[in-house]
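Bug #2210: token dump truncated for Glycosyltransferase?
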Amino acid sequence: MRILIAAAGSRGDVAPYTGLGTALRRAGHDVALATTEAFEPLVRAAGLEFRGLTAGTRVRGDVTGKRALMGTAAAFVTELGQGFANAADDGTDLLLLSTTTAPLGWHLTEATGTPSLGVYLQPTAPTGDFPPVVTGARSLGPLANRATGHFALRMADRVYAQAVAKLRHRLHLPPLSPSRMRRRREEANWPVLHGFSTLLVPRPADWRSGLEVVGNWWPHHDTSQRLPADVEDFLGAGPAPVLVGFGSMASGEGERLSGIAVRALRRAGLRGILQAGSAGLAADGDDVLTVGDLPHALLFPRLAAVVHHAGAGTSAAALRAGVPAVTVPVTADQPFWARRLAALGAAADPIPFRDLTAERLAESLDRVVRQEAHGRAAAGAARHLAAENGADRVLRAMEGLTDG
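Reproduced locally. Full output below:
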């Protein structure tokens, strides 16, 4: 079967699909991953065919104002839609659509008749169990959670309106609003598999049929890859260190955050590794090392704890490694994942990004590293995640579509 996975956004929105793609390829399928050009090296390194989705507007995860966030998202998806019509060719047998690309991909499936399946990294369907994850809000109770969930979907429809109108015109389809297309998919019980652990988000009982939680899809990394020599030397020179990194968050705040991190580590009596990321974290000293991008699967099991922004991928990677965390959520779905980690006991209570200080970070680090309960909770979570196989569940769902 010729499969096209379409994903877009930040690195965390794309990297898990490299692992899913390689798993599907091992099962005998031809797999292409359509995404923006910035991630072409990531796709090709996984041995997958790359197809470009045009989008000049950069997705900035550190945009915190809701109006600015919606404006940036609308510009991004409008540009994305312009190239989307070229993503699938006549030989594509199945489209796998991410949270970001599904509202565009649905129109492509209508035009081509190609079957599709949702492969989401965030829960978007309204539920009484929790409020919309992108809002960062705390639970307001079942009725209010569902109401705000429906409102969030309507806001997402507005973000996609211009992109959908242009895409349908290019595909020679009659006008149709994003909200009407979404309702069609819901009424048809369009299948969506969610690539996160049932430990973090058990499947809500009030979800419609067709929505399932299947376990993570882990980013591909070369099994022959090793950590750089300077990292190995640092790891071997003393007790397990703490990693501090904010991924694609906090651009331009590297000097301030680096100072906070180093003061907190030293106050807590811990060694540290600073991951530069978009913020540009950096520090020198015998007790601290600065690194660039490294595979979580190689580094995280060697750590005492991870300080991170609570992105979905980093949160899952820390659990997979059985390592406790201190979360510093910035925006969007990060407060949701941060609270989930804390509820499991695998992380300290979140420190909102705007409230981060060296003193608060040191106190949380001292707690998660030296109180055994956090480590035990993280280790238990690792065992749960190891028993899940998200890629296998996608394969089984694909077979169901083919049989149908």
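Output looks complete on our side. The two ends are 15 Å apart (CA to CA). Marking as cannot-reproduce; reopen if the truncation happens again.
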